Amino acid sequence: MSLFKKFVNKFTSKSETPEVPEAPEQVQPKVVEVVEIKELPKDDIWSQPIVREIKDSDWDELATELLQSDLGRELTNELVAAGKKSKDKPLAAIKEKLESAMSKKDRATKSGVILIVGVNGTGKTTSAAKLANKLSGKTMLAAADTFRAAAVDQLKTWGEKIGKEVVTGQANGDPAAVAFDAAKKFVDTNSDNLIIDTAGRLHNKADLMAELGKVRRVIEKSAPISEVLLVIDATTGQNGLAQAQVFTEAVEVTGIILTKLDGSARGGIALAIEHKFDIPVKWVGSGESVNDFETFDSNSYINGLLS
Ligand code: GDP
Q: Which residue's C-alpha comes closest to atom 16 of ligand 1?
């Protein structure tokens, strides 16, 4: 997602892109040229002085592009304001602002009891299984999304597929009861990780807080909670910000799992969330199979935005 390339090129290259001549009628033999890049230029393009004035219409164009990429109104405004404010090096000012928007918190996943929270349909159950498959050590799963019968079956099927035990309870039973049993089993069996898939009903904030609060309290009778990972579907765009708002008010979220990056999403939501809530994206999902799941690499993400 090289968001800024067009914009940066426009104001750093001396000539506009030359017209591409029409292709000749006859087919030309292909010439394959191997260019060896010994080292990258020290002075990157962002630090170069601009060669033409950046007009208001150019800033508007950039803002539209950033909004379409889900960076959100707040961050977009801040980036454009930083660029406008800096008279001599507007591009460097944008880059600096962009880099400072990423969370500086640790992106590693702490082993122990991991709660997976989020709105239904975002990919909670799938991500719980994918995560169980990635973590090292003895890992079990718990299906505490008892309100959605399919979620329990889905997690059981995943458990069989990846060879992990799944703790379940009664359909429509109390999610906290499943969480309690699972936490006890986690301690009794001396396991390394317990990943709990929670219910994603979003009636209102008070319900959500009460439900997650109860789940948390019963778990903590047996073991501390090491992570609360919020699952956000990248294709929902700015709605992801609204979800993050509700969940961070209900529970202390320690990381984000950003799913469906294989879809139409342009991924800017990762930066928007990190900027607004200072919660690091820890994992990204990029498909429906168990291996479509990776840790989030903030450096390559930023490079992707900038290059
Ligand atoms: P939950 O209701 O939050 O537990 O969501 P599910 O785990 O049931 O996932 C909802 C749908 O999204 C399922 O069809 C999943 O296969 C799909 N899904 C989950 N993660 C991803 C992903 O990273 N990419 C794609 N393309 N689909 C995903």
A: 288
- The identity of residue 238, as a single letter, is Q
Which residue in 6, 90, 93, 96 sits closest to 50, CA to CA? 90
What is the per-residue DSSP string for 180-246?
A: HHHHHHHHHTT-SEEEEEEP---S-HHHHHHHHHHHHHHHTTTS-EEEEEEEEEGGGTTHHHHHHHH
Helix (H, G, I), strand (E, B) or coil at 117: strand
Which residues, 6 or more positions from 8, have their beta carbon under 8 angstroms from its beta carbon? 45, 46, 91
Ligand 1: distance of its center to the CA of 257 in Å? 12
pLDDT digit string, tens, across residues 49-92:
787 888 999 999 999 989 988 899 999 999 999 999 987 888 88
Q: Output the pTM of the full model.
A: 0.86
pLDDT digits (tens, 9 = 90+) for 114-156: 999 999 899 999 999 999 999 999 999 999 988 887 889 999 9
